[in-house]
Amino acid sequence: TAKLDIQGPASRAAMERALGVRLPELKYFRFAPIELNGVPCLLSRTGYTGEWGYELYLPPVSVASFWQIFLNSGTIKPAGLGARDTLRLEVGYPLYGHELSAHQTPVPASRGHFVDRSKDFIGKAAVVRDLEEGCAHYLCGLRLDTRRAARAGDSVWLGGQRIGWVTSGSLAPSLGVAVALAYLDADKCQEGNRVEIECHGKHLSATIVSPPFYRHGTARAAFAPV
User: Fold this and answer.
1) How far is CA 158 from CA 21, 103, 147, 149, 193, in A?
2) Residue 157 CB-density burial (10 A; 0-12 exposed, 13-18 middle, 19+ buried)
3) Selection from 130, 136, 48 nearest residue 94 by Cα
4) Are residues 84 and 5 in contact, defined by beta-carbon separation less than 8 angstroms?
5) How would you class 39 by CB atoms within 10 Å of its CB: exposed for 0-12, middle for 13-18, buried for 19 or more?
6) Pairing verdict, β 31-36 and 2-7
7) pLDDT per residue over 152-183, tens digit each?
8) Which residue in 29, 55, 75, 136 has the most C-beta neighbors within 10 A?
9) For 193-212, how does the pLDDT look when each residue is reduced to its tens digit (9 = 90+)?
């Protein structure tokens, strides 16, 4: 199965113009089967960018023709995966392999949001344990004082003590400063705490903040979207 992600505030209108169709009404995290240009597809609205966005699942043999249709429309342009990564970081979305892993439950990353304890699921006992007993560390947002970005694995320090590590870091194009997500000791997670990030031998000053760094619908200050 192939997939094309069309993301951004104008994504729906742009897709409808390119394909000459009216797309179904979809709420966030919903999907619907749809036939486009005679091709059975699955359309979802689960964009991991913090903006309006759609994903089009379709047979691999058809993906090149749809790619060309979108490019020929003049309003949809290609973007690399790095662009998606900066966008998901700006809104504080965790990514598997960075903030999420098989080595811990989702509780330190989400503090229990999106967990329905009334249902049974694999790993429920561990999740309930972390919810009831607490975790040694939790995911926090860091807003740096500079455009220089921290990187995954960089140590976070407070008062000469190592209190955690960065999981994702980048310049936030929409904000004009660097931001990061980091796991910090549970008793050091207070918003407003000033910390330092050790990055290639230098210490970058940052403030603990509550994600999202960028909120949907606010003006993108630093760079116009491509």
Assistant:
1) 55, 25, 21, 18, 8
2) middle
3) 48
4) yes
5) middle
6) unpaired
7) 999 999 999 999 999 999 999 888 999 999 99
8) 55
9) 999 999 998 999 999 999 99
